[in-house]
Records
---
Amino acid sequence: MSRIHELPKVELHVHIEGTLEPDLVLELAADAGITLPYPDAEALRGRYVFADLQSFLDIYYENLDVLRRRHDFARLAYEYAVRALAGGVVHAEVFFDPQAHRSRGVPMADVVGGLVDGFARARTEFGFTADLIACFLRDRPAAEAAETLDELVAVDAPIIGVGLDSAEVGNPASPFADVFARAADLGLRRVAHAGEEAGPESIRGAIDHLGVDRIDHGIRSVDDPDLLAELVATRMPLTVCPLSNVCLQAVSDLASHPLPDLLSAGAHVTLNSDDPAYFGGYLDDNFTAVAEQFGLDDETLARLARNSVVASFLPASRQREIIDRIDGWQAASTESRW
Ligand SMILES: Nc1ncnc2[nH]cnc12
Ligand SMILES: [Zn+2]
């Protein structure tokens, strides 16, 4: 258990904007001559006490204002890769919110180009790989999502998929059916946040209306045994984010998190960090927290890591290579017990 950071991991649910650390907010603001309403990074971090998803999103969108130039996005991507690798992440499928930058007048080519630059540098320097998934904001009109997809196509954005995020309650998936169908026609994969704050009906909506390949969060599936059984039968991956759920009060504390129920039901659970700069931990921290809370052994941790590989959109040959490394980690942990 002590070698969690060495367990090879794939991350499937991380918002690149949610990796914007307070120090980097301050640095980018100083660079761009932006005056911030707090004196230092500690004061900013002090504001990270959230009652729910919306109270987090308010600060998350406010902080984005420091991301303005192509090299800001490159820096953000690179810094995430450095930190993720230190925790054992070898590949990530990374969300970004194009509308949150487009609405501030940042050219789409700079957003995408910067992220590509930052991840290319990480790949060259230390072999970390990343793919991009563009998320549509579900609290904005579906027509805006459609325009955003057109713009992504126009700049030839190298995205592998589309997602749906932002405020879930009161913003169902159904209006986004057409834009997700267009994404499917373009050969893109589809994922959606569902069952984070809203109930099982939100998960049902993402499956029925958007044809998703994975459900982001999905923890509220435990409230509907029929739905959970269906998720298990169809091997629908759930990208679960335990520390996020605690911080946003989707669960009252880690001990009450439904992870053990999902695991014992046989759900295809993966572990993820969501917005690690805000929720007190990167992917290794999420692994460590649930391992300690629920007494998960190395075999279970390796199973969770393998689940992410299988649920990823990586080609089979790369999946095999990472799974071999996970098997090696597990074998070494068994040997060290003798
Ligand atoms: N946890 C989350 N849920 C919904 N939208 C988000 N955008 C960034 N983080 C999010
Ligand atoms: Zn998320």
Note: Residues 4-330 form a domain with the TIM Barrel fold (CATH 3.20.20.140).
---
Amino acid sequence: MTTTATATTPVVGFDQVSKTYGSVRAVDGLSLALHPGETVALLGPNGAGKSTTLDLLLGLRNADSGTVRVFGTSPREAIVNGRVGAMLQSGGLMDEVTVAELVKLACDLHPKPYKVADVLARASLTQIADRKVNKLSGGQAQRVRFALATAGDSDLIVLDEPTTGMDVSARQAFWATMREQADQGRTVLFATHYLEEADAIADRVLVLHRGRLLADGTAAEIKAKAGARRVSFDLEGEIDEAPLRNLPFLTSITVSKSGSAAGSSQTIRIQSTDADATVHALYGLGVYPRNLEVAGLGLEQAFVAITAAEEARQS
Ligand SMILES: Nc1ncnc2c1ncn2[C@@H]1O[C@H](COP(=O)(O)OP(=O)(O)OP(=O)(O)O)[C@@H](O)[C@H]1O
């Protein structure tokens, strides 16, 4: 691994970067810096600009304005120097070659290649090394893309929705390998719609929305930023929902009914910006909540809350 990136040279530096497609502003004045050894998840709703951001970072597209630097150089130079390994969302794989041939080609092209057999093994491809690339399942093709991204010793690994189509064990093996890569000091940047993966894997989460950075922090910080907590409880018998819907600090409520021989009951799930006050008012209604639980938001709920609040602010 090369170590020329110093503490003062970000692995990736975006400075006021914008990219438009016609009238669509895909990336809008984006500034960010990634540092050595970070594992960073890039989240955002469909069309938020994640793929465009990664394309800019990889020099596949040019910014309309602003600068993109990778290890202090242009993206193209960083790639030519073998410092970046990338796995794109649906990059076409050459049709008439075998898995082993394609991986060998990627190794041959890398300035600091690993052994083909090791690359195949790491991506769990040894068993299907002789299969034609166009005969693979979606998950297997995804593992080939992963192998191509890790064909050599790169300092930055960029992954666009890497585990889409992978089964559970392939996904676990994939992230175990990525952890190893990060533990060895590499920077890993991945775009994903699987928020549980971001929560479990990333030590930094970037939330993009309409090409802008809406949140940047640890998963815990993002959850706290959403500023809401979950309250859930069961109520026995028939209930009047109106007072529940009027509880203070409530941002959302769902009531699911469940009937049984013993009578009806309902489970109420609430999001509140002040759970203590909401629960206090709940008891004030004279009801008897059973199985009361108060918990922080999961990353997924926090993400939904943050992006919905931004949508509301902009409309
Ligand atoms: N080649 C293109 N031509 C025109 N518009 C484009 C092009 N690529 C992306 N866009 C638009 O730019 C915006 C950002 O797209 P981008 O693919 O970067 O988002 P994303 O966050 O990766 O989305 P997804 O989660 O759906 O993959 C979207 O509005 C998209 O429709």
Note: Residues 30 and 158 are 18 Å apart (CA to CA).
---
Amino acid sequence: MSELTRRSAAELAELIASGRTSAVEVAQAHLDRIAAVDGEVNAFLHVDADTTLAQARRVDERRAAGEALGPLAGVPIAHKDVFTTTDMPTTAGSRILEGWRPPYDATITARLRAAGLVIIGKTNMDEFAMGSSTENSAYGPTHNPWDLTRIPGGSSGGSSAAVAAYEAPLATGTDTGGSIRQPAAVTGIVGTKPTYGGSSRYGVIAFASSLDTPGPFARTVLDTALLQEAFSGHDRMDSTSIDRPAPPIVEAARRADVAGLRIGVVRELGGEGYQPGVLNRFNEAVELLESLGAKVTEVSCPHFTYALPAYYLIAPSECSSNLARFDAMRYGLRVGDDGSRSAEEVMALTRAEGFGPEVKRRIMLGTYALSSGYYDAYYGKAQQVRTLIIRDFDTAFEQVDVLVSPTTPTTAFALGERADDPMAMYLADLCTIPSDLAGNAAISVPCGLADEDGLPVGLQVMAPTLADDRLYRVGAAVERALEDRWGGPLLAKAPELVEAGR
Ligand SMILES: NC(=O)C[C@H](N)C(=O)O
């Protein structure tokens, strides 16, 4: 494995800027790594060396011509296959969009292109972002680089696996119920769900529009901040985009200090049902924060217990409406259009064949929850619960600056283990869903390996709306202190595939 693939994005940018390497060389090193390992990991749905190298060449030319480029210019990035890209297909992990080439770039794709980042490929995901393991992808599951028999998390599991396997230093994802933080946690990397409205949804294929939040993945807290900063900011193409200055997250990641910060441990996110090794690492991380000068207290958020059921009414309701656009008429798959059938019949055949079982389950759940006679009892009630959860956060943030919990109740489970048990699958997001419902910001940073299985554990930090900088202060402080203790990054402890550099 080329040494270049082990570098952080910040280091790569610096090497490229100083002329010690080029965007083309860096892109080639990552393409080689993908060729060597992705047959086993299956992190990517689409890789096209010619397109990637042409992008890299263009960045090198722009630099040579003296053009001012962003701080991550020349660095490769993998995009979750839910971000539209004009030069690569976009499927959202679904058969219904197989081979679709979007006519426009997502705002985030476009901003990162303009800043000089090079798209290394499109990553695998649960179909339309519905799942926690990537097993709901129509194109086969992604494997966790720590242990190929385990899940890489989901729905952004292709992105987390690509970054953990050194196939890309940076990746994008979307978090609707935990789809960035949970995959980051189970692959030992960093992932952030920015404040809702802080990152543009324009050109991101919609699942649940009041929850969907694009965000960054990287192996270091600083890289994660640099990426988030590179794509953040108001977008007039997204009606829920926040028109306020973005929080100073890169500065916070560099500051990495928690002295005097008030940290609340959420009483309801821990205890029974959680893997002991996850709780051990979490408790140690909390002690570590205390030793770094943070003031730690326990905080109660009584309505968090209802977050999961509320989410599984709100998200499917919004999905049933959003996915109505896949009607076999405008784009994507069309089945049975042989002149003998009505448009409605073609639509029904296409949707029956084009959508997988989890997507169909959610469309049916959501349609039921929104149907007349049931709307108040289900969708309406869930929205009231959402308000109670927001109030829990408001009350908690009067007492503390950030909240912490484990990111997930368990480490990466085995592929297949929960595939036929949707309820067990949904539990993977127990700790992450509250921040999605409230729209505030949260990060997952590695905090060690579980005693039982030696797999990565994530620490979740949650901050109030538009206080994303606090996530990075805490995340960077934990990262720095733990790396001192471990003598290097957590990923360096990963076995065979990641370490050996095949
Ligand atoms: N999309 C997400 O954020 C993940 C969540 N597991 C879901 O299936 O809805």
Note: The first strand starts at residue 44 and ends at 46.
---
Amino acid sequence: MTETPQDLLAAYADLVRDEATRQNLVSAASLDAFQTRHIDDSAQLLDLAPPGGRWLDIGSGAGLPGIVLAILGAEVRLVESRRLRAEFLAHCIETLGLKDRATLHAGRIETMETERFDRITARAYAPLPKLLDSAVRFSDRNTVWILPKGRTASSELDTVRGTWQGEFRVVPSRTDADAAIVVATNVRQNVRRKEPR
Ligand SMILES: C[S@@+](CC[C@H](N)C(=O)[O-])C[C@H]1O[C@@H](n2cnc3c(N)ncnc32)[C@H](O)[C@@H]1O
């Protein structure tokens, strides 16, 4: 029998709950509200870019948002530096039958070979300056960045305005009234002009 995305999302939630008894994956409180706090929170990102394209998910942790996006049909490269978490992600990819669209870099993003992605996401991985620094080499002017930023979206954006250019907007989260998602394209570092002698 073919499993629907809903079956796979339920199976994924069970895998996380089970693994959470062995390692710290997500906050214990959020396990009780897994659908809203994690599944819906991740799934909403798909609506913020045109369909299709290859996604890069940096600091995937338990697989959020990367595994959810892959279950929902996206092609995703997950990046996770912690060994136990990376092993869990490999287990999810195998068990949920996602090998045709999810791949894993089990290591730091800094060690991943440069390639271009159509979409870049990262949830709770790093503040915007570090996130842009570590990921810009995987982007080009058409890459859509979709970055859930909780309550700090606007203030984090303010911190990069002097050093980064691009078309940035802040979109309210559908799952948390206080949270927002930074969506950007054509992201590039400001070129510093040489001071005249
Ligand atoms: C706070 S967790 C968030 C996990 C997940 N994205 C979520 O929203 O639940 C951040 C994750 O980023 C990973 N991480 C931190 N620095 C990293 C790096 N340089 N490269 C790859 N992963 C990194 C950590 O191991 C951790 O699993």
Note: Residues 26, 58-62, 64, 79-82, 85, 108-110, 123-125 surround S-adenosylmethionine (CB under 6 Å).
